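Batch manifest line 295
LIGAND: glycine
JOB: complex structure
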Amino acid sequence: MTPRLILHAGAGLRERTRASAEQIEARLDDILTAAWAVLTAEGARACVRYAVEQLEHEPLFNAGTGSKLQADGVARMSASIMSADDGIFSGVINVEGIAHPVVAADRLHGVPHHVLAGTPALDWLRCAGFSAHDPVTDQRREEWREGRAGRTGTVGAVALDATGVIAAATSTGGVGMEQPGRVSDSATVAGNYASAMAGVSVTGVGEHIVHHAVAARVVVRCTDGLALSDAVLRTLDEASQREYQFGLIALAADGSLVANQTPGVQTLYAARCGERALSFLQAPALHWPAKPSPS
Ligand code: GLY
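JOB STATUS: finished
ARTIFACT:
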């Protein structure tokens, strides 16, 4: 099996950042290249963890360092990871003061309770050796002072390795200015899911993503026999009828790849299939192998 990798940096072109589309694409491409090396050397799970860790490290993106602030001025971050080889979903919800929520989510893979939230989660992480890190950047502090709420922003990665294992990881700083304690989709099976048939990472309005159980819905459709492209298009069609707003990246066991979204959303993605690299500046939606798309 030729490995496959797809990353996203949110659905946020319509939320202005100081970076141009070209700068965002260049950064995504760098991370894609580095993560590809991890995919071929260490497999799908290590790859998605590494890719999301790099995306969290980049202050341009709304996850880890550069996370948006909730209404009380605190950055609370959520992340999850799932690999089809053991089917364990693990995650952290609304954790503060760490550099890499996806690494925290990965650490919870190996303990009996796989999803932890809030202050007790942070206490556990400190005991597990996660050191203090302030993820708040000057730009996010300024946005919060100006009361600028968003509606989107998340990062994610889905990979298929040479042994056929699929893994997905997703991380977010939330939408900004939300009610403290709001739970986003990113550390739920609506925002991130992987099975032997398919893996999905979602970005966009968390409430819409949870109402629609997006990642799990697409994966179950593939498990029941639908091609990935059809599973995604049917899911987006249903979501559009409810005026939900989100984008997703997805990958299936047959090697097919998709990046697509509901109307009005632009998913920022970069993908690699063998030697071939693809990115969001090249096409608004990606169905590979090619598939006509309504968007
Ligand atoms: N999808 C990110 C959030 O709604 O918080």
